[in-house]
Protein 1
Amino acid sequence: MSHAIGLKCLLCGAEYALHEVEYVCPLHGDEGILDVQYDYASISRTLPLEDLVGSRDYSIWRYKPLLPVEPESPVPPLSVGWTPLYPADRLAESLNLKHLWIKDDGRQPTASLKDRASAIAVVRAREAGSQIVATASTGNAAAALAGLCASVGQPNVIFVPASIPEAKIAQLLVFGSTVLLVEGTYDDAFELCLEATRTYGWYNRNTGYNPYMTEGKKTAVLEICEQLYWRAPDCIFVSVGDGCIIGGLHKGLKDLLALGWIDHMPRLIGVQAAGSAALYNAWKRGVDPSEITPVEVHTIADSIAAGLPRDRIKAMRAVRESGGAFVAVTDDEILQAMQTLAGGCGVFAEPAGAASFAGLLKAVPSGLVESGEQIVVLITGSGLKDVRAVLKLPGKGKTVRIEPRLEAVAAALQ
Ligand SMILES: *Cc1c(COP(=O)(O)O)cnc(C)c1O
Ligand SMILES: [Zn+2]
């Protein structure tokens, strides 16, 4: 048996047995997002910290007892998780910080953090005996689901806005998914996918609807704490669209506190694109997340373009309960951050992936972090996902066109 013991509604606190409800609280419909509850005493007995330290499974499945899957369920063969946590000393120095780490989730099999959630979706869909798995996505969740499904031969249907970057569409096509390019926004694709999964009985992986996706995403912070030898950092920067990742980080940290594996809750700093900043705006004005109304969005960071953040309640709680903050960054700041990050530590992030770092660049002068603090910046997706964004960079690097002659090299080096 898994150590997940129930589901609790974020809105009304109603508790359900695992098999009683599939996705959301029946009293609250699509808004009634559920939180998975665990039996921490039995997790401690199954997975003492000493055993984990000796584990050679360098994937998210090293934390299987902390995940909502049956212990005997087979897991997909693609290696998800255990991405590197790099000390970024040169960047730290340039920002007058002492301890800065970059967690690079561009290194996942389909090049974004979404693989962590899609791996859980594939296992749970198989446990449920579903024939088809479906998701709506701004692109990365779709690529992740497509790749993980391909690794086990699981048919799947993908709903994405027709405007997503080419590389993301290429990923969907090559994995053999049924791809529906929705002429509309991500929010439109989301609603359509909900209707279709209800009509056809497909397994629904949608973020901010399927309660198990946050559980997969929390593995990022389990790894961060383990990679820091179970000393939780002081704060973690993460970009926020729907809010599922930041909600997952908060959940993972609460798990670790409950198990006694860490001794404090880091501040969670959620970074939004200024052109898609529903949560930032609500936080700033003290508005309750349930009151947020959809806004029109415009940003180069397509992966965090969400007019109505689906996991807004979890995201707001993550920031408020951890004593963190929301920060908004402009597209220019994101582009600049992509370049500074890549040049300063060798990690190439897509715009949404670098937004977290842009948030740090803004937080330092505004006093949101102190120079002696231990800071982790989570990079959520690879820059190869969206090479067109790079062409918009202010400096475009140092390129010089030359004729194939040595004198031209000499002239160019002047
Ligand atoms: C999905 C995604 C995010 C944001 O995650 P949410 O759970 O929607 O807040 C950030 N960066 C990248 C690269 C993503 O794919
Ligand atoms: Zn409810």
Note: Residues 112, 114, 140, 207, 239-245, 303-304, 350, 352-353, 380-381 surround pyridoxal-5'-phosphate (ligand 1) (CB under 6 Å).
Protein 2
Amino acid sequence: MNKFAKLDQRFVWHPFTQMRDWLRREPIVIASGKGAVLRDVHGKAYLDANASIWTNLHGHQHPKINAAITRQLKKIAHSSALGYANEPASLLAERLAGIANCQLPIANLSKAHARPKNWKLAIGNCKLQKVFFSDDGSTALEVALKLAYEYTRRTRGPKTKPRFLSLSGAYHGDTIGAVSLGHIDLFHKAYGGMLFATDKVMAPYCYRCPFNQAKPERRDARNYRKCQWECVGLVEKKFAAQKKKGNPYAGFVFEPLMQGAAGMIPQPAGWLAQVTQIARAHGALLIADEVMTGFGRTGVANSEFEIRNSKLPLFASHHEGVTPDFLCVAKGLTGGYLPMAATLTTQRVFDAFLGEYEEFKTFFHGHSFTGNQLGAAAALASLDILQTKQSVLQRAKLQKLLHDELQTLWALPQVGDIRQVGLVAGVELVKDWRTRAPFALRERAGIRVCEAMARRGVLTRPVGNVMVLLPPYCTTATQLRQMVTALAEGVKEL
Ligand SMILES: *Cc1c(COP(=O)(O)O)cnc(C)c1O
């Protein structure tokens, strides 16, 4: 066995991994990467079909990001944000504030996101202009939660017990606050005793929605569903019921357009606009978790418009005309190079923490690596790439190609639903598409298909029985076809 594989098995404990299974066979040891390709210590090449767990944007060893990090490294790798400012973090904060606010004119929203008839603009009057840096998606959510909690107590009175609402199936990270917002029993139930109480409301999951009267078809369930937007009605009900209790929700937490770890569950066009409007009407702060969906991942709405106005729209919320009160970003922030996160919020929230020193209104929260220079330098370079005409065109093309290639999978009887939002795709495996009968988790259908794909040189990780394709933006047409072909062959092997 390879030397590093041996060391790994002796000393490393891997995340979300049954280590007994892990120890049974030689792990793949990644030695290098270039573009969408990862290479292991034996020289075998693999396609990085989930962008290294949804982090990578422009591929590995991107010359521009490499150069930016090297340039910064010649100055300094890290100094503390406790007490000092630094060059790249201040530039990055300005840059993030410049792209975080939805400025998409309604006329430029894509047809796929056409407004429902009763739609009003959910933007409100908030403007994201303050940036709190941290390290990971989980910490970005913790920061948003603590700020929203304390902001609510300061504006509604110190006796208030701020309460949060999130979506069924939600995943917002693995730290305790983030877990409290989560609703995946497999991950979260065991820790129930450590958590604070939050509420959940039905997320749209058209393929398995009890309100959807449509029989299964060979296309995206969002597009043939038969319902009366009952899911939106339930959100309205939930907010109204909480208001009746005399303690309206302080915050509504959601992943816009697509819930990732919940199983790549996409929202039908118009859902986000409607529910955020309801939340705002009930005085709740909007907390958008764009850890997976941010930085162009959910697609190019209108490439001509985006080229003319190269700043927009890089966030999923913007596709529905929404600017939240808190925008949490991480994974793709540095192009997937370094652990860095940011929580953006409004002047209004910021002002609630201003006061004389002895009033102790300070936000007492921070991490050792807050505002890290190497991370900020990588993020600036990544944004430079993201906002080029070439990147917009490449993403628009890749998105279309992904759509076309995915259509070939409908021929497989074990493919129940194919859900694509921009450059994210979830393929739900079922025993029989006609009945939507699911595989039991213990059958490890998703894991087995991934193993078969790995043998064919394509790496990804399933979410339960949902196969995930989330290609780096630099993926070529040939590489993308190889990813989808490996997935099809893996399913045939089931
Ligand atoms: C990955 C993820 C997180 C957690 O981010 P970490 O960097 O792993 O802590 C939170 N929310 C969403 C939507 C994610 O996909």
Note: The domain at 3-61+393-493 is CATH 3.90.1150.10 (Aspartate Aminotransferase, domain 1).
